[in-house]
Amino acid sequence: MTSQFPHLIDLNDHPVTWWNGLLSLGQEIMQNPMLYANSCRGKIMGTLFYEPSTRTQMSFQTAMLRLGGTIIGFDNPQTSSVAKGENLKDTTKIVSGYSDVLVIRHPTVGAAKAAALTAECPVINAGDGGHLHPTQTLTDLLTLKCEKGTLSGLTIGLCGDLLNGRTVHSLCKAMSCYPNNHFIMISTKELAMPHYIKSIIHANGCTYEETFSLEEAIPKLDMLYMTRIQRERFASDEEYFAQKDTYILTPQKMKLAKKDMIVLHPLPRVDEIEIAVDDDPRALYFKQAKYGMYVRMALILTMLQSTATTELLSGTVHKGVCCPNPKCITNQEYYLPKSFTGTGTTLVCEYCDERLLLEH
Ligand code: NCD
Question: Of 165, 194, 336, 346, which sits with the fewest C-beta atoms within 10 Å of its C-beta?
Fold first, then answer.
């Protein structure tokens, strides 16, 4: 199914040249913000935040306001008709009809793609469950480009909740499209990087290794990407508390790192970086959040100017076949076409990337 609008659901739906264009525009806006102060005059951005957010929501909002546009939306679905039982399709249809661009964050995997299927304007994925977060990755890429001067040949450490952290999934998918990057995945066995992300890294020609030890990995890194243990994605508090505080970045551990290693974090931080690390000049996570506003300005502008169409579903609906992932949007919004790519006995859900083996 092809939509008549440009959407950003997954960065990898777009070519690397498109991302690079956004990064360059972001840098240009950063240098001359006043030149863009009226670029979106008369345009309206809708924001549907079904999940809590500080940076993503407010940086999108400030981005639109700094471009001269205006904003509508909710940050708590309980104050909208969602509380009365309205489905995602209807809410999206209505708010996208009021808006020129729609930004959506949702706790369910695949929700942004589902929204784009019915939207009457471009849709931007601001995080779909533990799946993807493409605009955080644009933020991370702009930070790396400005602070390291390159997006290739880097040794990238990813530490924390690599299973449920959508930011690290999008980041690996994107950074493995630039040559010679090496990933060191630092996590417990329970919170290891999903297999499908590791396959993408490998298929893109980059390399990775997995380790439990932050102390052993840190001296090798050009960038350390710390993440929060995603409490809201755990089945029980018991499982969360078993993982919490496994990794805490301290000034002592920073002593083991290269002089020019940078520390990023999508934020919010809970306990995984000690406050004392904030004073280290290599700690760039607050600066990173500001880069996010500029790259989102570039994205909004680009989406509003583009006339591109988007291929949303290219697979097949198989009679009686459902996605086995209980967190997939197709298991919550039953009207959605349950579309899978893949051939033979292996199918891949087009909303959440879950694999399914067909039995014959
Ligand atoms: C992240 C998110 O929402 O995925 N935050 C953000 O957007 N900057 C990371 C997190 O919540 O841990």
Answer: 346
